[in-house]
Amino acid sequence: MRAPPLYHLYVAVTVLLAPFAAWAQIRKLRKQGVPALRAHETMGHASQPRSGSGQLIWFHAASVGESLSVLALIAKMGEVLPRAQFLITSGTPTSAKLVAERIPPRTVHQFAPLDARGPLSRFLHHWRPDAAIFVESELWPRMLRMTYERETPMALVNARLSAKSRAAWARQPALAAYVLDVFVLILTQNDEMAQAMVDMHAPADRVARGTNLKALSAPLPTDPAVLAQIRAALKGRRLWVAASTHPGEEEIVLAAHARLRASHPDLALVLVPRHPNRSAEVAALIAAAGLSFATRSKDELPRDDEAVYLADTLGELGNWYALTDVVFLGGSLRPIGGHNPFEVVQAGAAVISGPHVASFAETYDNMRAKGAAGFVEDAAGLAKAVADFYDKPAARRAALEAAESFVQDRSNALDDLARRLIHILKLAEPSR
């Protein structure tokens, strides 16, 4: 396929802007505490060697959510391809940190090279990927075309573009077709996005509905020492968790907990705001609700009569999920789109959610069908859902069994996806 004029214009612009973009990106990473050696990965200078002469499979993601969503897929592909190496690239220090904490075997992380010839040439020459898998909306024209020109098989998974991005690409159909032609397979999150990709001139015979990778994610990490410490402090008290809450939701959660305490006076709430920097704001809301609380970031532990434990730290969500059988998942009582319910059921808990879950609609539809998720709209509904969970043992067992069944289904889906990618990207190892 011939490159359209707009692609040539893009290439010319990147030549002019690359030095300034490189300076700005390296400076930004350094200010965020990234060592100089690693910050220069954005210029294509690798900080680690390519291991061996075997297959190397490159995954490219944008930031935290996308990066973490592929770790389980990498681990599964690694089981099928025991001699393969994996590379994951992303652009933010937070994603690098979290990936490092959960990185699968035989996998390294690097910061993504800038979308310019020099950085990309150095990157591709060093890593020599045997296949490349791009995640969600990472459609950098030069990165895609230069990788393609090396005859590297490429796939796009979890494809998802916002309405604004789709409209922008629709205004440049020749460029969209040129960029999307590099992929041997485009897997979307749902049928609507599959049609959107075809409308953007992706080759229709290479587009298919896949599954939401975030609904196949690896279990959140836990710290046994922290769990033992919190359990000892709680002394057998029952608790529920309200996780990833946003402004306007904590008030509803706290009102529900006040109702619950009237009938279940020993019940504790672990409240986990989505953004820990809102800790002081959320603490003020707890105090205004007349509820006693302890704060995780102050190294406090819940006392015998403490109503709320404010878990205002990063990277500990897995601990809080492991402490309970029922989790209210925020971002859903307000039109935010919801958060990942699969992480909850993987931890062995059932999910309660508000109605606004567009970002995980397919996942929630499947969970609802199995009975692994319940939905509420206000404080009264939330209080009743939590109370029913603890007061009705048969319903509780059914919800937890449904959650376990859903996790098994997702595990099977992950295995199918891994084998499909290995086949289409021609990665199967030769038999001996």
Tell me what you see in this structure.
It is found in: Cell membrane. Pathway: Bacterial outer membrane biogenesis; LPS core biosynthesis. InterPro entries: Glycos_transf_N, Glycos_transf_N_sf, Kdotransferase. This is 3-deoxy-D-manno-octulosonic acid transferase. Keywords: Cell membrane, Lipopolysaccharide biosynthesis, Membrane, Transferase, Transmembrane, Transmembrane helix. The chain is of the alpha/beta class and 432 residues long. It has two domains: 5-210, 3-Deoxy-D-manno-octulosonic-acid transferase, N-terminal domain (Rossmann fold, 3-Layer(aba) Sandwich); 224-411, Rossmann fold. The protein is built from 18 helices and 14 strands. It has helices at 5-31, 36-39, 64-69, 71-80, 93-102, 117-127, 141-149, 163-170, 173-180, 191-199, 224-234, 250-263, 279-288, 317-322, 342-346, 361-370, 379-391, 393-424, and strands at 56-60, 85-90, 107-111, 131-135, 154-159, 185-188, 207-209, 239-245, 268-273, 293-295, 308-310, 326-329, 350-353, 373-375. A seven-stranded parallel sheet has the order 3-2-1-4-5-6-7, sandwiched between helices. The chain has a seven-stranded parallel sheet with strand order 10-11-9-8-12-13-14. Helix 4 (71-80) crosses helix 18, helix 6 crosses helix 7 (141-149) and helix 12 (250-263) crosses helix 17. The longest helix has 32 residues, at 393-424. The chain is globular. The relative contact order is 0.10.
